[in-house]
Request: fold
Amino acid sequence: MEELKIKIKELSRQAAALSRQAVETSKVNRKQGLDLMRQARDASKQCQALIQELKRQQVA
Reply:
């Protein structure tokens, strides 16, 4: 369960960093900014999936 919490934190930080980077990059290169935002969304989705898994483990 601890590994899951660590992975959630890592993915959360990664999603936030990618999102910030996407905003800055899109000012110069829209296509690259959109690609970074997609990566941020993917990291966020993975994070949410792990949070759901953590909740399931806590209930069981």
Summary: The mean pLDDT is 96. The first helix runs from residue 2 to 26.
